[in-house]
Automatic annotation (TrEMBL):
Gene3D superfamilies: P-loop containing nucleotide triphosphate hydrolases (3.40.50.300). Keywords: ATP-binding, Nucleotide-binding, Transport. Pfam families: ABC_tran (PF00005). PANTHER family: SPERMIDINE/PUTRESCINE IMPORT ATP-BINDING PROTEIN POTA (PTHR42781), SPERMIDINE_PUTRESCINE IMPORT ATP-BINDING PROTEIN POTA (PTHR42781:SF4). SUPFAM superfamilies: P-loop containing nucleoside triphosphate hydrolases. It comes from Ruania alba. It comes from the Bacteria. Residues 1-238 form the ABC transporter domain. The keyword Transport applies. This is Molybdate transport system ATP-binding protein. InterPro entries: AAA+_ATPase, ABC_SmlMolc_Importer, ABC_transporter-like_ATP-bd, ABC_transporter-like_CS, P-loop_NTPase. Transmembrane segments: none annotated. The keyword Transport applies. GO terms for molecular function: ATP binding; ATP hydrolysis activity.
Length: 376
């Protein structure tokens, strides 16, 4: 039966401090996302018992695994927690079948029962018929599937996954992501998935926690957090810009232009006159044109860079006009919650280096009906 995991831990190593609380209900999946060096892997190591926090507790279905104040630190092998990372760490001297059967055998199952369990899980991850092979003969994707089968065959109370898809190629990762999603759902396994890829959160998890510099800056249902990111770090993960502004005389004023508050779909009295605000801008709300085209529409901006995007080209744009003096937001978008750069998606047929290249001046227009407004 799946069990819930709760933790409230503080840890400091090499000058880096992590302070995080989480509560993962039984049978649910929590995604922990954030930039590199934000503390994601450290958090998993604390949950698995590989590290001991300076303060805090870890509980699994009411059982205390870590309690620093009481001197309790249950060893990793006795926690009922499985850990799967980027490296499959398969036993090279054992066959694929023997690798997967290792968990059940360690838990006391007989050889025949462990073999049946291993065959079952190899079939579940799409590797039926490969049981006799050695890990050295497998592709990276196959090895990671074996590692997943081994982790699930051990029937852990909680499964921790530390960027399990990061080392896979672009063709293998989506396949294994789907396999992982299916197995977590059908088995009802309580899991914590660490990733820097927002797609993992969207497809695998029920809840998402965003870590930045060792602190949880956002937490909630995946759909809510990804649809309406509240911090610049989360917005960047989903390709959304949070632009600072100010409300004056029923209008919203930003470095990218101004619009009546009502045009954005917000109530005129939602933010008091003179109050700071943040405008949430998705790439679909941004139109980019050559600098000399319809000079009365939009504002002037500068192309910072271009990169491939799904179905087109993604462009990062910097505003030419100076940032507004918005309380709580530093100039240049360096505050904790907002910046002035925008992202726009351009049809490949419109990409012309004569006007759309790094450093080029362009006209940028935002569709107010596709914007969202909140207090700063």
């Amino acid at each position: 039966m799946s069990t819930g995991l709760a933790a409230d831990v503080q840890s400091e190593r090499g000058g880096f401090r992590l302070s995080a609380s989480l509560d993962v209900p039984a049978g649910s999946v929590l995604a922990v996302v954030g930039p590199n060096a934000s503390g994601k892997s450290t958090l998993l190591q604390l949950l698995a018992g590989l590290l001991t926090p300076q303060q805090g507790t870890v509980r699994l279905s009411g059982r205390v695994l870590t309690d620093v104040a009481r001197g309790i630190q249950v060893p990793p092998e006795h926690r009922g927690i499985g850990l799967l990372g980027q490296d499959p760490l398969l036993f090279p001297h054992l066959s694929v079948l023997e690798n997967v059967a290792f968990g059940p055998r360690s838990a006391g199952a007989g050889r025949a029962q462990a073999r049946r369990t291993a065959l079952h899980w190899l079939d579940r991850v799409g590797l039926d018929g490969l049981g006799a092979r050695r890990p050295g003969t497998l592709s990276g994707g196959q090895a990671q599937r074996v590692a997943l089968a081994r982790a699930l065959a051990a029937r852990p109370d909680v499964l921790l996954l530390d960027e399990p898809l990061a080392a896979l190629d672009a063709e293998t990762a989506p396949v294994l992501r789907q396999v992982l999603a299916e197995q977590l759902r059908t088995t009802g396994t309580t899991a914590v998935v660490v990733s820097h890829d927002v797609l993992d959160a969207a497809l695998l998890a029920d809840q998402v926690a965003v870590l930045h510099e060792g602190a949880v800056v956002e937490h909630g249902p995946v759909t809510e957090v990804l649809d309406a990111p509240a911090t610049r770090f989360t917005a960047a993960l989903v390709g959304v810009a949070l632009v600072p502004g100010v409300v004056r005389a029923g209008g919203v004023h930003t470095a990218w232009g101004g619009w009546p508050v009502s045009a954005i779909g917000a109530a005129p009295d939602q933010i008091p006159d003179g109050g700071p605000c943040v405008v949430r801008v998705r790439p679909a709300a941004v139109t980019v044109a050559p600098a000399g085209e319809n000079a009365e529409a939009g504002v002037e901006g500068m192309v910072k860079w271009l990169e491939p995007a799904a179905g087109g080209v993604r462009v990062r744009l910097a505003a030419k006009s100076a940032d507004l003096a918005v309380p709580g937001v530093e100039p240049g978008g360096k505050g904790p919650d907002a910046g002035t750069d925008l992202l726009a998606d351009i049809d490949p047929a419109r990409v012309d280096p004569s006007w759309l290249a790094p450093g080029a001046r362009v006209r940028v227009r935002l569709d107010p009906q596709r914007l969202a407004l909140r207090r700063s």
